[in-house]
Amino acid sequence: MSRPGVEWRGSAAERRVHRNPSHYQYLKVGLECEPRGPGLRLSDAAFKQTIVAALRGLHGEIGAALPVDVLKFEERSLTAILRVRGSDLVKLWSALTLVASCKDKKCAFRIIQVSPFLLALAGNSREFILD
């Protein structure tokens, strides 16, 4: 009889727990600015530059060189799906948390969702509209 996560070696069972095998982590983030309204417009390149500036501000040039990919960007809602190496997740998260302004407006990044699986960010049950 075989169970997931258990390897049999001779007559003894050895349990192996595998940490997340995913090389990347995916984040759904939003940029919220005050005052609310149609004031701030950012292109995908400007959004990425804001992220790089946040990394540079907290972690210096090494932080600015971290590979962060903007996979999807919605200009209207200022939300994006980012991909980062799992080992760099904490660095990115901390840098985004400390962002206080963007284009001379008070702004803050909100981490909406994090997952090692991109498909997990495809839908959010909190946003479903039920009839």
Description of the molecule:
The structure is a single chain. The protein is 23% helix and 35% strand. With 131 residues, it is of the alpha+beta class. A hairpin with a 2-residue loop joins strand 6 and strand 7 (105-115). The N and C termini lie far apart (46 Å).
Task: Describe this structure in a few short sentences.
By secondary structure, the chain is an alpha+beta fold. The chain contains two helices and seven strands.
Largest sheet: 5 strands, antiparallel
* Fraction in helix: 10-25%
Query: Which oligomerization state do the chains in this entry correspond to?
Result: single chain
**Strand arrangement in the largest pleated sheet:** 4-5-3-7-6
Instruction: Determine the mean pLDDT.
Output: 84
> Given the structure, what is the number of helices?
2
Which parts are unreliable, with pLDDT below 50 for 5 consecutive residues or more?
A: none
Helix-strand pattern: EEEHEEHEE
Record field, number of beta strands: 7
